[in-house]
């Protein structure tokens, strides 16, 4: 309550009491807005300059105003867009299942260029030093000039075993650190490899074979270590310099997402319904929290909270130090999308066709 002294013509008149307007803090996990697309969303959002960019299985990539979810623009491709976009210097880079890499003007969605990929594109592009690095489901990994999409180099990830050639699916995410591009693969023979290539010319530096099943997720490079989960149920930590094994941790079930590394802890989900936190230095268990169904997406760690979606239809917020639930918020279907958190808002897609903005 505020006390105001009322004075008229220099004379005291009296007092006026004014009740302040109450401002309620938003409830964590509550919906700020949601936007419906024409099909399931398995892409993950990128937020740049108050615009949310995300693809949909309806073949469009969408640009939405982050504050209210209204449409800024959309661009149609020829097939599913599950490739999470990368936005750099006013250009949106992504791929489509129609067999093309795309670059759009971020302000209006106008096509800057598109380049044939020779196969379906699922992973998120990495853009470093005006080069776009991205792979295809059919087995090629590309470096393209960011200005026009022309080919810089291509690395074919097929190899010969037992007298025949197995195709390899580069459907996971890549990282470029100190002139080396790292990416993981799933291959036809279900042998999983992690590759390190020279970023300037695509020559092989090393490769590391995980267990006898395909890699299903992507990788993260932090403090000269490559962290990746595999379909064999292990989390691997590899020395970035030579690909030698630092440690591995058994989760029992396949890992489909990209690990997040924060404050010397590795966070990731498993199809065995669990979220794991491992000590980055030795892979020992920090904590483990159970969800009620498969976790195929990747976690995001912001301000001491781990955000992750699950195929049980919920978005989870867990305390990063112990895995205790802070809140969870329902959607209408399974979530394979990975969250992006900007300005205390969690952006994520769901297979119910909606993009959600939730209060963190």
Q: Give the total of beta strands.
A: 37
CATH architecture of one domain: Beta Barrel
Q: Uncertain segments of ≥5 residues (pLDDT<50)?
A: 1-14, 159-171, 186-191
- The separation of the N and C termini measures 30 Å
Radius of gyration from the alpha-carbon trace, in angstroms: 23 Å
On the 0 to 100 scale, the average pLDDT is 87
CATH topology title of one domain = Lipocalin
Overall, the morphology is: globular
What is the overall number of helices? 0
**Helicity level, as a percent range?**
under 10%
Strand residue content: over 45%
State the name of the first-level CATH class of one domain: Mainly Beta
Class derived from helix and strand content: mainly beta
**Main beta-sheet annotation:** 5 strands, antiparallel
Describe the structure.
0% of the residues lie in helices and 52% in strands. It contains no helices and 37 strands. Strands 18, 19, 20, 21 and 22 form a 5-stranded antiparallel sheet that branches. The N terminus is likely disordered.
Short recap of the structure:
With 360 residues, this protein is an all-beta fold. The chain has a domain at 28-36 and 251-360: Beta Barrel (Lipocalin), CATH 2.40.128.
Features:
single chain, 360 residues, mainly beta, Lipocalin, 5-stranded antiparallel beta sheet, 4-stranded antiparallel beta sheet, 37 strands, 0% helix, globular
What is the fold's blueprint, element by element?
Elements: E1 2-8, E2 11-18, E3 31-36, E4 46-48, E5 51-55, E6 60-65, E7 71-76, E8 86-88, E9 91-95, E10 100-105, E11 111-116, E12 126-128, E13 131-135, E14 140-145, E15 151-156, E16 159-161, E17 164-166, E18 168-169, E19 174-177, E20 180-187, E21 192-198, E22 204-209, E23 219-222, E24 225-229, E25 234-239, E26 245-250, E27 260-262, E28 265-269, E29 274-279, E30 285-290, E31 300-302, E32 305-309, E33 314-319, E34 325-330, E35 340-342, E36 345-349, E37 354-359
Antiparallel strand pairs: 1-2, 3-37, 4-5, 5-6, 6-7, 8-9, 9-10, 10-11, 12-13, 13-14, 14-15, 16-17, 18-20, 19-20, 20-21, 21-22, 23-24, 24-25, 25-26, 27-28, 28-29, 29-30, 31-32, 32-33, 33-34, 35-36, 36-37
